[in-house]
């Protein structure tokens, strides 16, 4: 496949070693070492090509970098139903946080109601990165104008033994504290999350530039 040859041409061994340290959950031999800007540029050159369509159905991929490219290509799909179809086909093969988090479909902004129904299904999944992806989409699209307090309850009720799920729950609540302080603070005060996630949410909130010093000091006292 032509795409694989182009990936081979832009890989960097030193960068692969660096990435392997950031993503310890996957086999280092599957990392080619391709920087995200180069993957995005490659995706733009292929998005309207038949080769792209062939690539998106050639699952599973052998390399981490192919999965990253796959996630970027999905994010460029402009039809909502097609995008959902491709995501559903891909999620079972997502095995690390980086590939999960690279997916951010632009079309989601125009289909909030249908997206929310799908998010609830993803969050309820027992698959680590399907759940994490659902949490990230809820955080990305439903903590601003479309926010409802029920979303906090939905996330606070989750319990997982998976580090990468709990980290996303913490990230969600840290972002909620920055954007919806009055609604989200009671969940922290009541220690509605498990201890590790509670403390991590406070840590990430205190690192945020969007939260005032006074609020950060108050949060420190809740650890």
Automatic annotation (TrEMBL):
Gene3D superfamilies on file: 1.25.10.90
SUPFAM superfamilies xref list: ARM repeat (SSF48371)
Record CDD domains: AlkD_like
InterPro entries: ARM-type_fold (IPR016024), DNA_alkylation (IPR014825)
Tree of life domain: Bacteria
Full protein name: DNA alkylation repair enzyme
Species this chain originates from: Peptostreptococcus stomatis DSM 17678
